[in-house]
Write a structure and sequence with these properties.
metal-binding, rSAM_horseshoe, iron, disordered C terminus, globular, 4Fe-4S, YgiQ family radical SAM protein, about 750 residues, alpha/beta, 3-stranded parallel β-sheet, single chain
Length: about 750
């Protein structure tokens, strides 16, 4: 089914535009990075110049190349300024003034995440730079680059995009300065911000500018944001609603206008399917209910009547008609979020604004949002319509060289080395994990490529990529096994406002069939010249357990001895705040994985990933996780400390101490957060209980917790009594004498000093 706009109109197909006149110049071997390359192509100027914080690698896994090649296919001349010296405007003049616009990006990663660790320490290398050299991009690169573009050519249009701009499109918490910052738009002084999957917006924007339309008049593109005068509306028939009328951030009472949310699990217009739940779900639902942070509260009008009508044909038709009416009304409605100044000063309003933004993220029913910044407004149009399979194929079939630009010579670019033999088969993620920003950037609706397109890319790797030995390192995406998964009914999908399709349990309307993915694996293995195909992307194991055949296929052919998966925690409280399945799902997957490995005659292992210091996690939770690790024989080499990235729901918890997964109220229980360096180090130490450098800190903590029984030299003990010479944390001197810390409660509640 082709995607529709909220008003019912079909979006313009991505490759249906009349090509720009410059298409006569043909395809560039590489998009030019110098005047000499432009002259060799016969160009006197560039129509679009993309400025990126990454090295230019002509590969579809890198957004600079993907957008550049897409605009080239539309007939535009596209140049690249990669990792410019930002200390002056001169490097931004190297290709001249663009005829249409500068497209500014920090690269494939947020520049602050790229440059700093979770402990705010600067990283020693940069995977997106030749030879991994550090310090080749500035902090908050989008702002710096955009300002330099404006300085170089004051009359040029400046458009910002990619993940850094996307996740900073409204007022947001910035972990590195520990402040709430303004939207990136006013700081960058850009004309337009493009967020999410940018193909539709970038192509439409380029063609409209080429037709002579001023950028200040382009205000209707989905997936874009811009600055405007306070109170501006697109037309007289638009309505502005205060967000506090939709979800009042006060005492717990029924919202004034709750029509937009749907009942958890399945829509009133659909009967429950016969698909059975996996065995662990009953136990996990019970454990989640006991958690202090039961996260999902959904409201509907006349819920009881809808339940009685559920499943009937008339209810289906009634629901569709009602949904159509709501969509028509919502398409001309804008929700006013609390202003930047309000969310900066009021944690409750910050959490409320975050919750509202996430509830308005489904392209099928999302309304425009507006947020005041001083005397002006930041206006956000609804999210972009997902690409069809044919459009996805067209994007990935573009003539990529699949290697770095020749200007880098023999330099090794670590990010390229990691992905040069991998293939992205889908986009998006409906998991909704609160610590992850993929959903906020790529959306919850899965966009999948066709088998034929994936197989063609395998052949391209075989024929074009230097060093190919017959092994494809990954067929994946944000989640390896969500390929072709979708809602059973497009009307339900367009009306749904759930934050996750798989938490607290898997939605009955979600198609979890792994057969298309199994078929793709089998056909990919049969491509001549391919010896083996591995799966390296993260696996959603609560979905995988619904298809034992998929697990058998995966284990027998696509695991190279170890499979990385991410339970993230073992305790129901933290897992509820993460919106992750209970550890029972991991246990069931491990049983199926081990059995399939034995049946295949292979010795293979699961490598679980866990997060330390996530909001809602207490010291007791981390202790229980540590004991689980020891019981199961895990000694983790690398562990991950929670990093609050802009716009993630867990970041909202970290900033505000409130839970945006349910109605935000001023008197609701607080979410405990781990902020101090020592406390964050303690939670990380629990994950590495076997490291002698962590033993002094763990011994002192266990005594304070009344768990000195876990100190000793037996198998039942967590840490030993003795301390090997030359070990212990040298950063804090003698941690036994100097340690002063606060003990966090196990789940929820306020922290005590």
């Amino acid at each position: 089914m082709k995607p529709k706009m909220p008003n019912g109109a079909l979006p313009k197909p991505l490759f249906s535009y009349r090509p720009y006149w410059a298409k006569r110049f043909g395809i560039a071997p590489f998009l030019p990075m110098s005047r000499e390359e432009m002259e060799a192509l016969g160009w006197d100027s560039c129509d679009v110049i993309i400025v990126s914080g990454d090295a230019y690698i002509d590969h579809p896994s890198f957004s600079t190349a993907l957008i550049g090649r897409l605009l080239e296919a539309q007939g535009f001349r596209v140049g690249i300024i990669a990792q410019p010296d930002w200390h002056s405007a001169e490097p931004f003049r190297v290709l001249g003034r663009p005829n249409l616009f500068f497209g500014v990006s920090a690269g494939n990663m947020d520049s602050m995440v790229n440059r700093y660790t979770a402990d705010r320490k600067i990283r020693s290398d940069d995977a997106y730079t030749p030879d991994g050299a550090p310090n080749r991009r500035p902090d908050r690169a989008v702002i710096v680059y955009a300002q330099r573009c404006r300085e170089a050519y004051p009359e040029a249009n400046v458009v910002i995009g990619a993940i850094e701009a996307s996740l900073r499109r409204v007022a947001h918490y910035d972990y590195w300065s520990d402040t709430v910052r303004r939207s990136v738009l006013p700081d960058a002084k850009a004309d337009l911000l493009v967020y999410g999957n940018a193909e539709r917006a970038m192509v439409a924007l380029a063609h409209r500018l080429a037709m002579g339309e001023p950028i200040a008049a382009i205000r209707d593109l989905r997936g874009t944001a811009f600055m405007t005068a306070r109170g501006w509306l697109p037309a007289d028939d638009w309505t502005e609603i205060d967000s506090t009328r939709v979800d009042t951030p006060g005492r717990l009472d029924r919202p004034a206008n709750p029509y937009g949310e749907t009942v958890r699990q399945d829509c009133p217009a659909m009967a429950k399917t016969a698909e059975s739940s996996v065995p662990y779900e009953k136990a996990e639902k019970a454990s989640v209910k006991k958690a202090a942070a039961q996260p999902l509260i959904f409201y509907t009008q006349d819920r009881q009547a809808r339940r009685q009508d559920r499943g009937s044909k008339s209810a289906v038709e009634s629901g569709k008609a009602e949904n159509a009416g709501h969509i028509a009304a919502r398409s001309r409605t804008v929700i006013r979020l609390p202003s930047y100044e309000q969310v900066r000063d009021d944690p409750v309003l910050y959490a409320h604004a975050s919750r509202t933004l996430h509830l308005e993220s489904n392209p099928g029913n999302a309304r425009a949002l507006v947020q005041a910044h001083g005397a002006r407004d930041v206006w956000l149009n609804p999210p972009p319509i997902p690409l069809t399979t044919a459009e996805m194929d067209g994007v990935y079939d573009l003539p990529f060289q699949r290697k770095p630009h020749p200007a880098y010579g023999q330099a090794r670019i670590p990010a390229y080395e990691m992905i040069r033999f991998s293939i992205n088969i889908m986009r998006g993620c409906f998991g909704g994990c609160t610590f992850c920003s993929i959903t906020e950037h790529e959306g919850r609706i899965i966009q999948s490529r066709s088998e034929a397109s994936v197989l063609r890319e395998i052949e391209d790797i075989r024929d074009k990529t230097p060093g190919f030995t017959g092994i494809i390192s990954d067929l994946g995406g944000p989640t390896a096994n969500m390929y072709r998964m979708a809602c059973r009914d497009k009307h339900i999908e367009s009306a749904c406002r759930r934050l996750s399709c798989v938490f607290p349990d898997i939605c009955h309307n979600l198609i979890t069939d792994h057969a298309p993915l199994i078929d793709l694996y089998r056909k990919a293995r049969a491509v001549p010249g391919v010896k083996r195909i591995l799966i390296s992307s993260g696996l959603r194991y609560d979905l995988a357990v619904r298809s034992p055949e998929y697990i058998r296929e995966l284990v027998a052919h696509h695991v190279g001895g170890y499979l990385k998966i991410a339970p993230e925690h073992t305790e129901p409280g933290p897992l509820a705040y993460m919106m992750k399945p209970g550890i029972g799902a991991y246990d069931q997957f491990k049983r199926l994985f081990d059995k399939a490995s034995r049946d295949a005659g292979k010795e293979q292992y699961l490598i679980p990933y866990f997060i330390a210091a996530h909001p809602g996690t207490g010291d007791e939770d981390m202790l229980n996780l540590s004991l689980w690790l020891k019981r199961n024989g895990f000694r983790l080499d690398q562990v991950q400390t929670f990093l609050p990235t802009p716009m993630a729901l867990a970041t909202t918890m970290f900033r505000s101490g409130r839970n945006p997964l349910k109605k935000v109220t001023r008197d609701a229980p607080r979410v405990s957060t781990v902020r101090g360096a020592r406390q964050r180090r303690l939670h990380k130490a629990f994950l590495r209980y076997h490291d002698p450098d962590n033993w002094p800190l763990l011994r002192e903590t266990l005594k304070q917790m009344g768990r000195a029984d876990l100190i000793g030299n037996g198998k039942r003990h967590l840490v030993p009594n003795f301390q090997p010479a030359e070990t212990g944390d040298k950063r804090y001197g003698n941690p036994i004498k100097k340690l002063k810390m606060r003990i966090l409660p196990p789940r929820g509640g306020r922290s005590s000093k």
